[in-house]
Specification:
Layout lengths: L2 H36 L19 E7 L6 H8 L9 E7 L5 H13 L5 E5 L6 H12 L4 E4 L10 H5 L8 E10 L6 H22 L12 E4 H6 L10 H11 L3 E12 L5 H28 L5 H11 L4 H21 L11 H22 L3 H20 L1 H13 L33 H22 L5 H20 L3
Parallel strand pairs: 1-2, 1-4, 2-3, 5-7
Antiparallel strand pairs: 4-6, 5-6
Amino acid sequence: MGLAIAYIIIAIYSTALLLIFFYSLAQLNLLINYLGYKKRNEEAPKFNLLDPKEIPYVTIQLPIYNEEYVMERLLDNIAKIEYPKSKLEIQVLDDSTDDSVIETARRVAELQETGLDIQHIRRENRKGFKAGALKEGLEIAKGDFIAIFDADFLPEADWLKKTVPYFKDEEIGVVQTRWGHINRDYSTLTRIQAFALDAHFTLEQVGRNSKGHFINFNGTAGIWRKDCILDAGNWEGDTLTEDLDLSYRAQLKNWKFKYLEDVETPAELPVVISAARSQQFRWNKGGAENFRKTVLSVITAKNIPFKTKFHGVMHLLNSSMFLCVFTVALLSIPMLYIKNTYGHLGWVFEVTSFFILSTIILFVCYWFTYKSIQGSSFDNFVDYIKLFFTFFSVALGFSLHNTVAVLEGHLGKRSEFVRTPKFNINSIKDTWKGNKYLTNKLSPNMILEFALMIYFLFGMYSAIPLNDYGLFPFHLMLFLGFGFVFFKSLTSKA
């Protein structure tokens, strides 16, 4: 390896490490915000829902597409929402193309007979996907406030009573609630997903919201002021994360978002890795698409302070961290050989301390979010350590898949909105076998993921002849992570 190539590898490697370090510092700042906010007791103006004159009209939108396994559960649950029937409308925005349409229509008709104002709304095509369905429903919505639930969400009966009152403050455009997980303990895969989502819904959402920084409506389990949607330019389907897109456009127009950590809305996590793959791809590509679309508006906005701009840029770059992580992983083996070939470059490897420091910062941040939901006993801490390193390894294993998504997003390659299959999995006894929405196609990335598993096995072996074990734990986690993703993808077929 020539010295010039070695310098290029070092430069790319160091830049990626530095970006990861900045990301971890942003997370640390959010942790400080989060812990500070937990000690405050804020009083906010609220509607008095005991006074009929103060009860606003609400429309609940249920955007669905081929949801045979969860439709009955969804509709039965929504029918239990406690709110005056004269002030409540439910729109079933059904873009389905399979037989589930017939059963949905039958169940909607039954609910209509109970006096519930519920409509089964169909479109001729899926233009704009979810964003298009929400936009079309909004045109005929009676409500001043629009609550949105995906098909796998199960809000409590008093959900509207806990969220609607905050709209008394006329500057609030959105109230978002925290996601819960009805099948958290189903498998290693669901535990990892719950772990990552819990960090987002505690540390990130509270950490940003408590200081007036931009947060995002999470696509579901939240409620919008209709005027806010229209003022921000309405739903647009030009990114795969229409929720993040509209959230930023609304906040750039000075609308406030209210995040309620204490209001949990239970939902079902994907139990098969192919479903998790499609969800991860959509979220990460959509994040990169929104960076392209919105970052200049955030940077040049005159109405927001520098710190909010910084957190906004880091938020929009969230998914791009996978590109940095994958770069660091891929170059770590050449770096190992550079270190042992060019002794005078030894000082460069002080840079690797950034990665260790970043990992420690994230370990501390995630512990505070974990204990806020699971508790802080010694046993919970031991469980946390195991779960953190399992999560870290599997996140590394997803880094190729998510890097492809991020690159497509940044390069402007368009792709169809691929929904996440739902399973109606509530406990370990339930099974996903035979789910007709699961694809039997193997991901083309699997061959590369297998190759990377072998590559990092070589990285572990390299430590022996070089007598340098500094990167061995990192390569072990990469080997286990890519192995997990590869073998789960190979065996999890319906």
